[in-house]
Structures are given as structure tokens and as C-alpha cells.
Design goal:
It is built from 13 helices and 24 strands. By secondary structure, the chain is an alpha+beta fold. Among the domains are: 167 residues, FAD/NAD(P)-binding domain (3-Layer(bba) Sandwich); 75 residues, no CATH class. It is globular, with a radius of gyration of 24 Å. The termini are far apart. The structure holds flavin-adenine dinucleotide (FAD). Keywords: Oxidoreductase.
Length: 445
């Protein structure tokens, strides 16, 4: 069986597209097999997701975004607009992802994948029309449905989303996230004359809203004001489960939502998808180069798991905040999973150490000296482009002279970025100040 393709990726959403580009640019033969999403939606992304897409060259996809709009949040008794977001109409965004891939020279096949077969030297994907494609490695990136049957550590509740979709006479883009009295929340968005409302509700409310969506909305004035005179065109239920998976089965790697799906409340699914691709690309490049699989698998798994638990705790904290003013069973039941640990561990200086571990350098995994902390157990290689381990090692050894010298050698922007980041680590000792301007110039080597 000939494997003309190095890596076959099933699913051309943000995760599959990002991975395809990274592997293609590294010189490998990649094919994406996908069908377009069959349900329309609007999803919100942050600036850092947009920046990540721009860096990858997903420019057509990024151009479908509307915004920026103020990310308005009404949660519990608080009104906030903490930052901005961009609104992505799907599946227009997904179509543009495929156009970006084709433009970059990646092979894209629009077909429905039925399943995978593994054999000794590779993997075969079976398409719905009976044809087959063979490759050395496969990647499962078909979204959260593809994780079904493989989930672990699932949240003890399901998160079905009721979606209301319609057309509006108002063309300006806007969004609002709001918790609801008695439990549940809604995210409303409007872009280019389309309006979208995503609802996560207690079961009795869900049944009511499914049966008579507009009547249900009338009882929720904040969301009703947003919906206003939008003409309802469709409402549908999207099943949802918060869970993670094992990231490799034989020659098949898992990516994006197919590896781990977080609560839509986090609004970070697309960021996760892109980040997941950045972590998997060097792992697959290592596998293609014949490197041992165990450490590669461990790296991808640990990275995914770290994100999974972090997002689970972020969701828990939102539920706790809502429960403070409204002790409804919906909120109280979600305040204790996954645990009671803080979302970010405090990086006590005494527990910060320097050690050898795998780091992503360009598109490869390399062993490097990293700074390993309770909050960043995978290690930090660089901050503002400056390798962190030598500085931490010098501070631990009390060699302030070496630290001062290293900082003085850095371009100003890098030194400032590093100092600002360091100052945010609340338990770390202060970096030595720069030498006074009036002091005699330091001899340069
Ligand atoms: C209701 C809801 C609201 C959300 N809102 C947001 C939000 O506001 N912001 C945010 O960042 N994230 C949001 N998310 C999460 C976000 O949609 C996902 O996390 C993200 O799209 C995952 O990317 P992916 O590439 O892994 O999967 P997907 O984007 O799901 O891509 C998978 C691709 O595989 C294709 N595919 C599926 N089955 C097959 C098959 N059999 N054969 C071939 N191709 C197939 C699909 O059509 C799709 O193109 C939301 C999720 C839900 C459920």
C-alpha cells in the first residue's frame, strides 16, 4: 500500500487547517479531507486568536471576522466590558480556511470521512463514497463529535446549547454575554444583519425555550432587548460534553475539539484549536523523523491536559461568581468540579526551578533548560524573546551582577517586556535595577 501522503488530516476547521499549514510549511505532504460545517453560527474570538491566525497566514479566514466589538458581559450583578472581540460567521469562516489552505498549496479534498483503519506502515481513511486515502500518519480533527466514545474526565453535566438564529435590519456588529436569574446563561451576537443567540439553560427552561423560543425570550428582558425585532429563522439544539481524550491511538493523533472540548462559556474553543495545532506540529514532525513516540505523545497529552483542567477551573469560577448573588441549583451544582484548586497556582519562588525539558523551538521539539513552576509545569523557555533559565539560575545563586549584565545587554523593548512580566510574579524577588545613568560605563566584552 503506497503512502504518498505523510499526514492525512480529517477535518478542516481551525485546528486541522492550522496543523496542515504548519506541516506543509515544514516541507511535508499533507492532505486535508473535510466537509463543510452544516450549521450556521457566529463565534467570538479574542485578539490573540486573530493574531495567531494572521501569523499562520490564514488571512482569508481572518477577513471574515467582524469587529472589533466591545465584549460586553453582564454576570451576576456586575456589568463589564473587559476587552474586545471579533465575530466569526460560520461556515463562511470555514470556507475561507479551505481557500487559505488551497492558496498555500495544501491538498484539500471535500468529502465525508467514514472511518480509519490502521496497518503496520500507515493509516487509511475511508470516505463515504467508498474511496480510500493512505498516509503514514493520520490526524483526527473532525471536531467534538469525533471525540464521542473516547472521552475521559467529563464534566458531570452536559452542556447542550439551544441556538436561535435570525436576520436583523441592523447591520452593525455587537455582542453580549449574560447570566440568567435562576441559572443558565446566554451569548448574543449580531454581525452583517445576522443575529445569533446561544443559550445554556436548566432542563425545565431548556424545554420551555425549545417549545416557544420567542415567548421564552419575552421573560428575559436583557436578551429580548438585544434580539429586538430580529426575525427568527431557525432554532436548533447542539449537544455538548466537556471532556478530554487520549491524544494518540496507534498512528492516529487527536487535535482540537476531537482531543478536548471545553465549555462554550469559556469562548476559547478556537484559541484552543490553534494552540493544539502548534503543540502537535512539532510532535508529528518528530514522529515523521522516526523519533521515539512515548516522549512525543507525553508532550502533546500533557499540554492538552493542562489546558483542559485550566479551562475547567475557569468555568467553575464563573459559576461561583454567579452563585454568590443567586444560589440557584444550576450554579451551585457547577461550583465544585473539577476541584477547589485555584485556576493559577501561586509560583512560590522556593518552588521555581531550572531543569531540562522539551520546548517548542520553531516547529521542532528540543531539549532545553526551562524554568519549571507549579503553574507552568511544562516549563517556560523565553519571555519577550529572552531565555529565562539563565536569569532564574543566576537569581537563585545570588549572582545579581550576572543578571544586571544580561539585562543591560538586551534591547530596551525586550528588557522592559521581561521586567514587566517578572514583576507580575508576586512571590519572585525583584530583579536588580539597571546601573545608574551617572555611573561609569561598564566595560563590554
Ligand atoms: C454552541 C457552541 C458555541 C461556541 N462558541 C464559540 C465561541 O464563541 N468562540 C470560540 O472560540 N469557540 C466557540 N465554540 C467552540 C469552537 O466551535 C470549537 O472549539 C472550534 O471550532 C474547534 O475547532 P476544530 O477545528 O477542532 O473543530 P471544528 O471547528 O468543529 O472543525 C471540524 C471540521 O471537521 C468537519 N467534519 C466533521 N465531521 C466530518 C466528517 N465525517 N468528514 C469530514 N469532515 C468532517 C466539520 O464539518 C468541520 O469543518 C463553540 C462551540 C459550540 C458547540
Amino acid at each position: 500500500m503506497s503512502n504518498d501522503i505523510d499526514v492525512l488530516i480529517a477535518g478542516g476547521g481551525p485546528a486541522g487547517a492550522a496543523l496542515a499549514l504548519l506541516l506543509h510549511h515544514a516541507g511535508h505532504r499533507v492532505e486535508v479531507v473535510t466537509r463543510l460545517r452544516d450549521y450556521p453560527a457566529i463565534e467570538g474570538i479574542s485578539r490573540r486568536s486573530g493574531d495567531a491566525m494572521a501569523r499562520l497566514g490564514l488571512n482569508r479566514a481572518l477577513a471574515t471576522a467582524h469587529g472589533p466589538v466591545a465584549r460586553r458581559v453582564h454576570w451576576g450583578n456586575e456589568d463589564r466590558a473587559p476587552n474586545q472581540e471579533w465575530l466569526l460567521p460560520r461556515p463562511a469562516f470555514d470556507r475561507a480556511l479551505l481557500a487559505d489552505l488551497r492558496q498555500a498549496g495544501v491538498s484539500v479534498r471535500e468529502a465525508r470521512v467514514r472511518g480509519w483503519h490502521q496497518h503496520e506502515s500507515g493509516i487509511t481513511v475511508e470516505l463515504a463514497d467508498g474511496r480510500q486515502r493512505h498516509a503514514r500518519w493520520g490526524v483526527e480533527a473532525r471536531g467534538r463529535q469525533a471525540a464521542r466514545g473516547h472521552q475521559r474526565d467529563a464534566a458531570p453535566w452536559a452542556t447542550p446549547a439551544l441556538i436561535l438564529r435570525g436576520s436583523s435590519n441592523v447591520s452593525s456588529a455587537a455582542s453580549l454575554a449574560s447570566s440568567l436569574p435562576g441559572g443558565g446563561w446566554g451569548w448574543w451576537a449580531r454581525a452583517a444583519g445576522h443575529a445569533y443567540l446561544q443559550l445554556a439553560l436548566p432542563q425545565d427552561q431548556l424545554d420551555e425555550a425549545r417549545g416557544a423560543p420567542l415567548e421564552w425570550l419575552e421573560c428575559h428582558p436583557r436578551l429580548a432587548r438585544c434580539w429586538d425585532d430580529t426575525a427568527l429563522e431557525q432554532h436548533y439544539l447542539r449537544p455538548g460534553l466537556v471532556a478530554r481524550t487520549l491524544v494518540r491511538q496507534g498512528r492516529l493523533w487527536r487535535l482540537g475539539d476531537a482531543a478536548m472540548s471545553v465549555d462554550p462559556l469559556s469562548g476559547q474553543g478556537i484559541f484552543n484549536a490553534l494552540s493544539s495545532a502548534h503543540g502537535l506540529a512539532p510532535v508529528i514532525l518528530g514522529a515523521l523523523a522516526g523519533e521515539p513516540l512515548a516522549p512525543l505523545t507525553r508532550f502533546h497529552q500533557r499540554r492538552q491536559d493542562l489546558l483542559y483542567w485550566r479551562f475547567a477551573r475557569a468555568g467553575r469560577d464563573f459559576f461561583r461568581l454567579a452563585a454568590k448573588d443567586d444560589p440557584a441549583p444550576y450554579w451551585l451544582g457547577r461550583c465544585h468540579w473539577p476541584d477547589h484548586l485555584p485556576m493559577h497556582a501561586i509560583d512560590a519562588w522556593a518552588r521555581v526551578r531550572v531543569g531540562q525539558a522539551a520546548a517548542i523551538i520553531g516547529t521542532h521539539l528540543r531539549q532545553r533548560e526551562l524554568v519549571i513552576t507549579p503553574d507552568q509545569p511544562l516549563g517556560i523557555y523565553a519571555v519577550s524573546g529572552v531565555a529565562l533559565a539563565p536569569l532564574v539560575a543566576a537569581m537563585k545563586a545570588g549572582r545579581l551582577d550576572l543578571v544586571r549584565e544580561r539585562l543591560a545587554d538586551l534591547p530596551k523593548a525586550q528588557a522592559t517586556g521581561l521586567r514587566q512580566w517578572w514583576a507580575q510574579q508576586s512571590d519572585w524577588p525583584a530583579l536588580p535595577l539597571p546601573v545608574n545613568a551617572g555611573a561609569p560605563p561598564r566595560a563590554r566584552r
